[in-house]
């Protein structure tokens, strides 16, 4: 046993003296556990002068002592993990506490420079983070040991710099201090936690650090004033609908001109929040005095981008149904109960979101104005939102589909599923569901084939 230990010690000394490349320890043991390998990678950036010898010793032992892989309390493994954790913590602090200041334009655009004093050799490891975050900005980070710059094309590393080379405070910094002072909440102040997350050694790099002392000193008094202050009355933010509506005051007597006015008005409408985020309003289209009006729920992603109703996947399915039924699309008036696209973002995709009852109710006057100009003989309500808008009551589409109903003014309304419901159906049931949907639509064939008067 003593001989074995002597041989290991001799090996450690020999290899640590020959070690020159910081990555050489990894090549000596390529099959170590991933967690240990990551600890070695991060540990190489530690400021301990003897880090390479320590890490090589750990890898050598892992190669020759298989049982070491199952001993997480081994001194060498613990030391490697501690070094790696210290490096990762320093990297995190650098990404959080670097503050850029703008220097004069040198003809190639503004240059933003920051000064930072990392505890370990992390500049090259952290630089890609700043490239991803500030890709379109020219910047440089100066540190005592190593400096890095980004000219929007590639990273350039250079020797360390002196703190005097860093630029002084600028107007942007004053604005940041004003913002920081106003977002400070004295009631939530926890000094111990703040110093744990923002250690004092980083304060010289942070412009806001000059405010911490005074803000903390006044925190107790400010908290007391907040408690003693009377409740505030919130200002009314919802503007009355009569002010926000974009409905034209007087429509033209010509139905075509009136529909054009309604379309322009709907595009400017902000009576509900949907219109503010949509690309444009999607108004109905078709011949004036069409015998049959098709009413869907709301435009989808493609309709919102192109400004036409039923041109997306659901619209393509509807076109297929019209072709099989022998309905000319150019004889139908096709529209939606809600004129703007309501969605929620999922990554870069805009996912359809069903409009609420209030949003549909607010948008109802646009549909009613449309109906007043087109004067159709019958309607097809595709889905529950359209059926409720036309019939003025909640509708159970599955139970009432394929039947003619009477609206509040005696109009004939055929209720059926929205084509998007078929696209979401179980693939095994889609053929049958499509056939049943065609049977529903066929009840309106008399009106669909009728020419406009």
UniProtKB/TrEMBL annotation:
<comment type="similarity">
    <text>Belongs to the uracil-DNA glycosylase (UDG) superfamily. Type 4 (UDGa) family.</text>
</comment>
<dbReference type="Pfam" id="PF13566">
    <property type="entry name" value="DUF4130"/>
</dbReference>
<keyword id="KW-0408">Iron</keyword>
<protein>
    <recommendedName>
        <fullName>Type-4 uracil-DNA glycosylase</fullName>
    </recommendedName>
</protein>
<feature type="domain" description="Uracil-DNA glycosylase-like">
    <location>
        <begin position="283"/>
        <end position="438"/>
    </location>
</feature>
<keyword id="KW-0227">DNA damage</keyword>
<keyword id="KW-0479">Metal-binding</keyword>
<dbReference type="InterPro" id="IPR051536">
    <property type="entry name" value="UDG_Type-4/5"/>
</dbReference>
<dbReference type="InterPro" id="IPR025404">
    <property type="entry name" value="DUF4130"/>
</dbReference>
<keyword id="KW-0378">Hydrolase</keyword>
<dbReference type="Pfam" id="PF03167">
    <property type="entry name" value="UDG"/>
</dbReference>
<keyword id="KW-0004">4Fe-4S</keyword>
<dbReference type="InterPro" id="IPR036895">
    <property type="entry name" value="Uracil-DNA_glycosylase-like_sf"/>
</dbReference>
<dbReference type="InterPro" id="IPR005122">
    <property type="entry name" value="Uracil-DNA_glycosylase-like"/>
</dbReference>
<dbReference type="InterPro" id="IPR005273">
    <property type="entry name" value="Ura-DNA_glyco_family4"/>
</dbReference>
<dbReference type="InterPro" id="IPR023875">
    <property type="entry name" value="DNA_repair_put"/>
</dbReference>
<keyword id="KW-0411">Iron-sulfur</keyword>
<keyword id="KW-0234">DNA repair</keyword>
């Amino acid at each position: 046993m003593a001989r074995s230990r002597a041989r290991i010690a001799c090996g450690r000394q020999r290899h640590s003296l020959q070690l020159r490349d910081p990555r050489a320890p990894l090549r000596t043991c390529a099959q170590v556990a991933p967690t240990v390998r990551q600890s070695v990678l991060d540990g190489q950036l530690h400021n301990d002068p003897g880090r390479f010898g320590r890490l090589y010793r750990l890898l050598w032992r892992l190669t020759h002592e298989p049982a070491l892989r199952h001993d997480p309390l081994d001194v060498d493994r613990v030391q490697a993990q501690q070094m790696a954790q210290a490096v990762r913590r320093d990297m995190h602090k650098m990404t959080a506490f670097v503050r850029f200041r703008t220097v004069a334009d040198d003809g190639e655009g503004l240059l933003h420079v920051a000064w930072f004093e990392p505890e370990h050799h992390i500049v090259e490891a952290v630089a890609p983070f700043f490239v991803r975050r500030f890709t379109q900005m020219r910047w440089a980070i100066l540190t005592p040991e190593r400096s890095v710059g980004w000219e929007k094309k590639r990273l350039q590393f250079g020797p360390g710099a002196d703190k005097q080379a860093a630029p002084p405070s600028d107007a942007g910094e004053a604005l940041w201090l004003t913002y920081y002072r106003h977002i400070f909440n004295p009631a939530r102040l926890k000094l111990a936690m703040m110093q744990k997350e923002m250690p004092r050694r980083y304060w010289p790099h942070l412009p806001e650090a000059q405010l911490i002392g005074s803000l903390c000193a006044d925190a107790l008094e400010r908290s007391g004033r907040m408690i003693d202050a009377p409740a505030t009355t919130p200002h009314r933010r919802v503007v009355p609908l009569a002010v926000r509506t974009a409905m034209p005051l007087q429509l033209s007597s010509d139905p075509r001109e009136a529909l054009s006015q309604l379309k322009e008005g709907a595009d400017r409408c902000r009576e509900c929040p949907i219109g503010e985020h949509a690309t444009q309003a999607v108004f109905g289209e078709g011949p004036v005095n069409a015998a049959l009006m098709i009413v869907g729920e709301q435009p989808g992603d493609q309709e919102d981008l192109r400004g036409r109703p039923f041109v997306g996947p659901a619209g393509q399915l509807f076109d297929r149904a019209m072709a099989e039924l022998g309905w000319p699309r150019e004889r139908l008036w096709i529209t939606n109960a809600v004129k703007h696209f309501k969605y929620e973002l999922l990554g870069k995709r805009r996912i359809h979101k069903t409009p609420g009852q209030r949003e549909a109710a607010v948008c109802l006057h646009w549909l009613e104005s449309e109906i007043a100009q087109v004067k159709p003989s019958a309607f097809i309500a595709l889905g529950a939102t359209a059926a409720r808008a036309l019939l003025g009551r909640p509708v159970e589409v599955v139970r009432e589909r394929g039947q003619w109903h009477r609206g509040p003014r005696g109009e004939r309304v055929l209720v059926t599923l929205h084509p998007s419901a078929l696209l979401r159906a179980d693939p095994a049931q889609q053929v049958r569901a499509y056939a049943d949907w065609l049977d529903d639509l066929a009840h309106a064939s008399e009106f669909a084939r009728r020419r406009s008067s």
